[in-house]
Amino acid sequence: MYDAVIVGAGILGLATAYHIKELRPNDRILVIDKLKGPGQGNTAKSAAMFRTFFSSRTNLLLAKTSIEFYEYVEKKLGYDLGMRWTGYLFLITEEEYKRNKPVLQTMKNMGLEYKIYDADYLAKTLNINVKVSQDEEAQMMGLVDIDYGLFIPRAGCIDVDSLVKFYEQELRKKNVEIKCGVEAKELIVEPKEPLELPGEPYPWQEASVTGVRTNIGDIKAKKVILATGAWTPLLLDKIGIDCHIKAKKRQIFSIKADKESLKKLLYTKGFNPENCMPFLILPKPKIWIKPALEEKAIWIGLADEFPREFKVEDDPQPEMNFYEYGLYPVIIKYLPQFKDARPYSSWAGLYAINTIDEQPIIFETHGVLVVSGASGSGIMKADAIGRIAAALYAGMEYAELSGGERIKTTTFSIEKRETEPERFVL
Ligand SMILES: Cc1cc2nc3c(=O)[nH]c(=O)nc-3n(C[C@H](O)[C@H](O)[C@H](O)COP(=O)(O)OP(=O)(O)OC[C@H]3O[C@@H](n4cnc5c(N)ncnc54)[C@H](O)[C@@H]3O)c2cc1C
């Protein structure tokens, strides 16, 4: 009998286990994952970008404190997490800038830093074609001119493998068992007072989740924690619990910066201490372009919405047509350096999207605690999410985040949700 079995050794399962052990060092914790090792689900598929720039207090708290914790892990605990402060550069239109000005002012008052670059500067430094409307094809595609660059310096990327290794090593030191290749097939639901009748529990019996049925047998625990990301509804739907999470495919295409013009773009100076291009976000569609310095490559992706289906898949595949006809024609209009560039590698993963407000889901019901729904920002928010889930597990009303700020453990629940809408949406 374990105190807790955590299903899912992705970044959220690992962070949750870590913080449970901080709060309850003597609890017996088991983490299981159906894959071969920790962090091999969507955690491994991520672009691993982070930013401390959100308008909603809840979003900001999760990201800001998690990033501060990762900095602490690097500086004080001596783990190299490969954090690189590349910055984010949102390429925006005059209209977007005007619309967001009041929000940006509020964010400035909150102490958040940003810088505005004009179009001429962007054209000069990054060789961006800011006036795409002069191109007939671009016009037909509905592409818009870039008027400004909104630069966020407290942002960058992290090495996810190193972050996973940090948690894994610390968990092993704290005697947390991690078993991979173990798949939870279903949740075990039992009455509090079993009468050994067939088909228990009946509606008049008090019942709860008491464990997981797996390919290596039943595992019983006082608390079952589901950190199963995009796969969470597969287990919860079967017992009638709605977690409001849906899965959507996301893809990344990696281009080697071997051409002179791409090398020049990758190593653009003047934006950050890494002397590389910042993480770029085009105005419409919001294709993002990441400097992947270790690989001497540039990653490209887009969180496309309509009409991309919601679908849970075990092994989603990247679609070359999506690159060829969806991304490439747009990119070369803004950044002609990419002419003829084709990916040398590509992969796809799933966002676990919480359909209420796209912020995480952390709640407990009928003996099962759910920590998931981190959408496209689970890496940058994992430490804080893990702390909240751990505090909820420990029966606490508040969780203490890195740096000491407190947040109610019900903030990301379904019934007592207190998230703030994100207004910084470019
Ligand atoms: C293409 C892409 C780009 C992204 N870019 C960023 C980014 O730049 N920045 C950022 O912060 N976030 C990004 N994300 C999001 C981030 O990767 C996720 O939010 C985060 O990894 C979620 O972690 P998780 O632990 O909830 O999920 P996962 O890492 O998917 O972990 C869930 C685990 O549960 C296991 N599991 C599921 N069901 C079972 C079962 N029945 N039995 C046993 N094990 C089970 C799975 O094998 C998996 O390992 C991106 C995601 C994708 C797909």
Write the layout of secondary structure elements.
Layout: E1 2-7, H1 11-23, E2 29-33, E3 49-51, H2 57-75, E4 88-92, H3 94-109, E5 115-118, H4 119-126, H5 136-140, E6 148-152, E7 155-157, H6 160-173, E8 177-180, E9 184-191, E10 207-214, E11 217-226, H7 232-236, E12 245-256, H8 260-266, E13 279-281, E14 288-292, E15 297-301, H9 320-334, E16 345-354, E17 361-365, E18 368-372, H10 378-393, E19 398-400, E20 406-408
Parallel strand pairs: 1-2, 1-11, 2-8, 4-13, 11-18
Antiparallel strand pairs: 3-7, 4-6, 5-6, 9-10, 10-11, 12-15, 12-16, 13-14, 14-15, 17-18, 19-20
Helix pairs in contact: 1-6, 1-10, 2-10
Bound molecules: flavin-adenine dinucleotide.
Your description of this structure?
With 426 residues, the protein is α+β, with helices and mostly antiparallel strands. The protein has two domains: 2-78 and 160-244 and 356-408, 3-Layer(bba) Sandwich (FAD/NAD(P)-binding domain), CATH 3.50.50.60; 88-152 and 246-354, D-Amino Acid Oxidase, subunit A, domain 2 (D-Amino Acid Oxidase, Chain A, domain 2, 2-Layer Sandwich), CATH 3.30.9.10. Helix content is 28%, strand content 26%. The protein contains ten helices and 20 strands. The protein has helices at 11-23, 57-75, 94-109, 119-126, 136-140, 160-173, 232-236, 260-266, 320-334, 378-393, and strands spanning 2-7, 29-33, 49-51, 88-92, 115-118, 148-152, 155-157, 177-180, 184-191, 207-214, 217-226, 245-256, 279-281, 288-292, 297-301, 345-354, 361-365, 368-372, 398-400, 406-408. The strands form four sheets. Strands 1, 2, 8, 9, 10, 11, 17 and 18 form an eight-stranded mixed beta sheet that branches. An eight-stranded mixed beta sheet has the order 5-6-4-13-14-15-12-16. Helix 1 (11-23) packs parallel to helix 6 (160-173) and helix 1 (11-23) runs parallel beside helix 10. Residues 7-13, 32-35, 40-43, 45-50, 183-184, 227-229, 231, 235, 250, 252, 349-352, 372, 374, 376-380 line the site of flavin-adenine dinucleotide.
